[in-house]
């Protein structure tokens, strides 16, 4: 395969008479001399047509599948190759021709001079910019066009016909209007055919499962705008059929195909996690300060207790545990024991001043938190999912490093998480799942009240369309770009679509605290009473045993 810097492709309908002469036998057996023909006319027309139909920013490469050695091709081809605007690839091997780039990003020029070469029509079924260059006499060998696969392929591209009567004609079949387009090569500007400007009633068929339509309404809205502006019709089917034109792809990673078009919106694998539960009412005693504040406070008390036990004048005569309890009592309600000495007085005075600031701030926060419902942290990060979630062991979950449980051992709804495909956001996804036959209103309500999407998503892709036939790709690309630039998609979902279900967790306590809410406090009170009695019994027992040992000595 050889690579050249440039080579254009020809499209359209062109009929011209060239000053071509060939060597033909005379009556005496001598050959007439070759007459010269003007190649500049053909080359300039073809270059201009190629430039307008195949802009260099979109079709920067020209692929030449050279299967002909005709004299006309040998005369024109060097002039076209000398153009430096496009890159060029020249090959004589048909089996290497079919590639994704050749189908959608290259203009393909295919000269043919024999019926043997007609077997290349199979790899050309998906091309959108192809031109066939062959002599007119080949047409006489064909039967009805519908019976010849080569002619069917020709209708998807462009055909340049020539003969030995010094004429050349370029033909293109518009599959939308069933008409042959004609371009005047003598015009200074050769306009492209523009066959997609009028679809002539062409039916665009969208394959969309019934359960996705209530949520994915923008896809239908998008196609309605196209058919209203391009003289087409729209049909929606439940399954993919030979009539299908466009398909919404939910998970591009599961399919391998070159016919994707990036669209609007996003698809992702969502993690459905339990909502955070409210904290018990006694949590207001702990929440005002974080754990590091409490750690620092108790370390301060321990350090002061050790210092006073060593250097205190009055408190130094007591056990260190008694000093710790005395410092805690000072923070809560004041001193309960006598203390003295310059060092001890100054140390306790500074501790009391700090306690005024600390405890007053603590009390203010406790009062403000009494009107709020406190919640445990939500599950959002991948680390949270690994620690707090249990997934049923199946083929999808095995791709992730998460904790699993075997089927038949359900651990409870407050611990189980699920993986599901999502579209755009949780509201749109729920609108799709809500219309499934096995999802009742009670299930939807239970799902919204008890589950949510975690902040961590997996396999997030931009929304894609599968478009076929390839000839319509340019049409959809044009309108998709218009949607991106205008921001219609975001406006449509923010103003046109209202979620049917919406969950807001309670923030403020709207009821009075009753006896049931204070049960934990009663438990704490009872536990404290029992602990006090046990400590009293332990102290009496220790005192009695100490006296017994002294008497025995």
TrEMBL record:
It is found in: Cell membrane. It is a multi-pass membrane protein. One of its GO terms (cellular component) is plasma membrane. Keywords: Cell membrane, Glycoprotein, Membrane, Receptor, Transmembrane, Transmembrane helix. It comes from the Eukaryota. This is Ionotropic receptor. It comes from Anopheles gambiae. The lineage of its organism: Eukaryota, Metazoa, Ecdysozoa, Arthropoda, Hexapoda.
């Amino acid at each position: 395969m050889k690579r050249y810097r440039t080579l254009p492709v020809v499209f359209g309908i062109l009929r011209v008479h060239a000053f071509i002469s060939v060597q033909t036998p005379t009556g005496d057996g001598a050959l007439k001399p070759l007459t010269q023909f003007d190649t500049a006319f053909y080359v300039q027309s073809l270059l201009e047509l190629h430039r307008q139909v195949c802009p260099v920013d979109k079709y920067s490469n020209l692929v030449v599948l050279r299967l002909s050695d005709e004299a006309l091709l040998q005369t024109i081809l060097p002039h076209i190759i000398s153009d430096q605007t496009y890159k060029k690839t020249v090959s004589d091997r048909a089996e290497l021709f079919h590639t994704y780039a050749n189908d959608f990003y290259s203009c393909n020029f295919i000269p043919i001079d024999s019926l043997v070469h007609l077997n290349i029509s199979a790899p050309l079924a998906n091309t959108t910019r192809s031109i066939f260059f062959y002599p007119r006499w080949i047409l006489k060998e064909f039967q009805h066009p519908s019976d010849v696969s080569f002619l069917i392929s020709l209708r998807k591209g462009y055909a340049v016909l020539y003969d030995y009567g010094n004429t050349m004609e370029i033909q293109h079949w518009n599959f939308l209007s069933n008409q042959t387009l004609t371009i005047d090569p003598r015009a200074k500007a050769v306009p492209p055919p523009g066959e997609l400007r009028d679809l002539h009633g062409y039916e665009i068929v969208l394959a969309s499962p019934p359960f996705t339509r209530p949520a994915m309404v923008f896809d239908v809205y998008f196609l309605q705008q196209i058919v209203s502006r391009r003289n087409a019709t729209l049909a929606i089917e439940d399954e993919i059929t030979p009539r299908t034109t466009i398909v919404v792809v939910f998970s591009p990673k599961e399919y391998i195909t070159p016919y994707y078009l990036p669209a609007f919106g996003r698809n992702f694998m969502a993690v459905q996690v339990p909502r955070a539960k409210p904290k018990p009412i006694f949590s207001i005693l702990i929440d005002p300060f974080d754990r590091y504040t409490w750690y620092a406070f108790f370390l301060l008390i321990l350090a002061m207790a050790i210092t006073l036990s060593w250097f205190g004048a009055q408190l130094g005569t007591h056990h260190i545990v008694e000093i710790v309890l005395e410092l805690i009592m000072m923070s809560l309600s004041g001193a309960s024991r006598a203390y003295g000495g310059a060092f001890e007085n100054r140390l306790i005075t500074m501790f009391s001043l700090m306690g005024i600031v600390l405890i007053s701030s603590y009390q203010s926060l406790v009062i403000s938190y009494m009107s709020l419902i406190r919640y445990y942290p939500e599950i959002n990060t991948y680390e949270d999912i690994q620690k707090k979630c249990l997934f049923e062991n199946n083929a999808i979950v095995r791709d992730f490093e998460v904790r699993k449980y075997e089927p038949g051992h359900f651990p409870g709804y407050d611990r189980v998480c699920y993986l599901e495909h999502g579209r755009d956001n949780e509201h749109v996804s729920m609108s799709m799942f809500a219309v499934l036959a096995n999802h009742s209103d009670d299930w939807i309500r239970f799902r919204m009240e008890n589950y949510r999407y975690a902040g961590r998503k997996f396999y997030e892709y931009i929304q894609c369309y599968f478009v076929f036939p390839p000839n319509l790709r340019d049409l959809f690309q044009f309108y998709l770009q218009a949607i991106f630039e205008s921001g219609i998609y975001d406006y449509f979902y923010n103003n046109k679509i209202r979620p049917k279900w919406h969950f807001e967790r309670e923030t403020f306590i709207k009821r009075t605290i009753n006896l049931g809410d204070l049960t934990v406090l009663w438990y704490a009170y009872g536990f404290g009473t029992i602990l006090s009695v046990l400590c009293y019994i332990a102290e009496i027992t220790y005192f009695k045993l100490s006296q017994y040992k002294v008497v025995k000595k």
